[in-house]
Amino acid sequence: MTSFNFLSIAQDARRVTRGTPEMLAARQMERLNELVAFARAFSPFYAEKYRGLPDILSDPRQLPPVTKPELMEHFDKVITDPAVRKADVQKYVADLDNLGKPFQGKYMVWTTSGTTGMPGIFLEDKNWDTVITAVNVLRIGGEWYNWGVIKGMMAAGGKSASVFAGNGHFFGVTMLERQRRSNRSRAQRIQLIPVTLPIAEIVQRLNDLQPAMFAGYASALGLLAQEQLEGRLRIHPAIVISSAEPLSVENRALIQQAFGVPPRNNYGCSEGGVMGYECRQGRMHLNADWVLFEPVDAAYQPVPAGQLSDRTLITNLANRVMPIIRYELGDRVSLAEEPCACGITLPVVNVEGRTDEILRFAAPEGKTIPILPLALWSVIKETPGVLRFQAIQTAPEQIEIRLEAKNAAEDEPTWERVFANTRAFFASQGLSQVTITRAAEAPMRDPKSGKFRNIWKK
C-alpha cells in the first residue's frame, strides 16, 4: 500500500482550496478510482459487490451505495488487512484503557451509533491520519489560528480543555486521548472534562485549568456561556470550538458574548473524519478533495444545490484499511447555490444535525437542573448490552426509556444495568428524586423526519 506524504498532501490541499471546480472534480475521480481499485484487490466484500462494473469509473453513481448494517455484518470481508478481525476489535473497544492506543499498533478505532441507531466500528489507517492532519493544519490552521489566537495559546502554555463524553471510543475523544498519550507534557496541558459531570464541577475544573483553547458540544458550550455571563465560570479562552451538534444563531451569539471570541465550528463523523470546517465568514466548507459528498433523496438520486437532502452518501478517499465508499450517512444537508465570499472555492454545506434536546428537571429547593443530551446519551449507550435506546422526559421529575438489547435473551439484565446507571447519573447531578421507567414500545424512528432521535422532552 502506497504511503501518503504529509507535505505533498498539504501542498495539493493549498492549491485545491481556492482552485477551480474542474481541479476539484479531477482530484475526486482520480482518488476514487485509486480507492476502488485497492478495495477490489484486497476487500472480498467490495470485490464481490463491484463484480461486473467498469474498471475505470467516470461517475461515482456507477457504484452501489452501502449502509452501516451492511458493513458491520460483513466486517471481516470489508477490512483489507486479513490480520484484523471483528471479534478482536470488539474486545479492544470494550476496554476503555485502550482509548488513544492504536489497535495492533497501527490502526485507530472509532465507535459510533449515529442517527440510524445502529452501532458501528470503524478503523483508520496511517494514510487517513496523514490526510486529516495535513488538511487540518493547512485549512483550519489558516482560518482559525490568527496571531491573536496563537499569542493566547502561548501565554496559557498551550493549555486546552474539551468537554466531551469520555466513556467510549468516539472519534473526537480518541483523537484527544492520542494527543495526551504522545508525551507527559501534553497529558498535563490537554484535559478531557467528562460532559457527564455536574455543571458546577465542570465549571470548577475549567476555572482551575484556565484553558486557552476550549472545545465541547454546542449544547455544553451554551450552558457554560451562561455560567460565564452569571460570573460562576471565569475563563478567557483565545479560541472556542463547537462540534457534534448544530450551532444555532442564538447559541453562537451567546458564546461570543460570554467569551469574547467567535465560536469555531467543524463537521465530522467517524466514517469520514473531519469533513468540513467554518471559514471566517462562518460558512461550512467541505474537504471535498478527500471526502466525496453526495446529498441524495430517498431513492439515492442527487438533489440540487439549495434543496435539503433525505440522506447523504460519503466516500472517504484516504482510508484503505476499511474502505468507506458511497456510504449512507443519516445527515440531512443542502449544498449552497452560490460560492462563498471568503474566496475559498470548496463547496459550502448546511447541516441539519442532531435533534436531541437539553432536558431540565425540577430539583429540591425549587432549582431546575439541566441535563445535556450527549451526557445522558453516553451513560445509556455505553451500558453493556444496549443496542438502541431513546430517553423521553415526560414530566418535570420523570423520564421514560425505550430500550432494545443486543441479545433478546439478555433483555432484562440489560434493562437492570441501564436503570442502575441512569439512576446513578441522575443522583450525581443532584436529581435522585427523578423517576425512571421503561416504555412498553421499542425505540423507533420519528414518523415525520425519518431520523432516529435519542433524547427529547414531550
From TrEMBL:
InterPro entries tied to this protein: ANL_N_sf, CapK_Type1_Caps_Biosynth
Residue intervals passing through the bilayer: none
Protein name: Coenzyme F390 synthetase
Biological source species: Levilinea saccharolytica
